[in-house]
Task: inverse folding
């Protein structure tokens, strides 16, 4: 059941250490060496947490692999820290796969895929910005959302829609809330594209039926940290790095 998470965690060297961890209102970050990993913040305040935390408040100096273990937590605040820890390793500019990705131009995931999606049945899990512009004119688009907007399907429609799609895009948040494994089962006939800053750029994920990883690599950790902490209100997360794609070879 936890194999996907365990393989990601085991790939982190035991000697890697957490330099800093911070939970912002929108993004959670973990810094380790040159790597800064991000994950979406799902829990906005301690009052919203339904399961108790097991982590101590001071995470600096902890083994990065140990912090990554809480990616499996059902406390989603801790789970965001765990995924951010995983991304601090796999999305680091020191990784050879990331170095190659950074040589390519910054590109929105849906712009990168729009020609392949042309004329196809496409489901996107999570209402990403500008889908009506990038994908809707080109394909038969269905959007699934936990909090549906006008025209969206509720996320429970995945059981009925995904088996009949040509391409499925899912937010990296599905790693945090543990829905990814079921989505992979439902889309195993076509493959799934994982999208967003919460996505680990880890080739090992291709072994689980993921077709493409459309993530984010931080190249300016100081700027990124300032944005996450709310110390820089003139820049955004994407100003601190590059949106990159890692495809299955």
Result:
């Amino acid at each position: 059941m936890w194999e996907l998470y365990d393989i990601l965690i085991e790939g982190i060297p035991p000697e890697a250490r957490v330099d800093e961890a911070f939970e912002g209102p929108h993004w959670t970050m973990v810094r380790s060496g040159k790597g800064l990993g991000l994950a979406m913040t799902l829990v906005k305040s301690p009052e919203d947490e339904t399961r108790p935390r097991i982590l101590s408040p001071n995470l600096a100096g902890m083994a990065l692999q140990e912090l990554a273990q809480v990616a499996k937590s059902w406390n989603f605040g801790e789970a965001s820290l765990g995924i951010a820890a995983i991304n601090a390793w796999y999305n680091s500019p020191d990784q050879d796969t990331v170095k190659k990705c950074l040589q390519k131009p910054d590109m929105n995931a849906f712009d990168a895929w729009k020609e392949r999606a042309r004329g196809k049945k496409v489901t996107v899990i999570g209402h990403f910005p500008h889908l009506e512009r990038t994908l809707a004119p080109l394909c038969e688009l269905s959007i699934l959302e936990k909090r549906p907007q006008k025209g969206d399907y509720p996320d429970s429609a995945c059981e009925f829609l995904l088996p009949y799609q040509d391409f499925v895009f899912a937010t990296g948040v599905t790693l945090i809330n543990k829905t990814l494994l079921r989505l992979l089962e439902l889309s195993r006939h076509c493959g799934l594209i994982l999208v967003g800053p919460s996505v680990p750029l880890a080739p090992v994920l291709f072994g689980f039926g993921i077709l493409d990883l459309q993530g984010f690599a931080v190249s300016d950790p100081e700027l990124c940290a300032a944005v996450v902490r709310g110390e820089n209100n003139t820049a955004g997360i994407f100003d601190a790095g590059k949106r990159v794609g890692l495809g299955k070879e």
Residues 76-90 form the longest helix (15 residues). Strands lie at 20-23, 27-32, 35-40, 121-125, 140-145, 153-154, 167-171, 192-195, 210-218, 241-247. The chain has a mean pLDDT of 94. The domain at 99-221+235-247 is CATH 3.40.50.11590 (Rossmann fold).
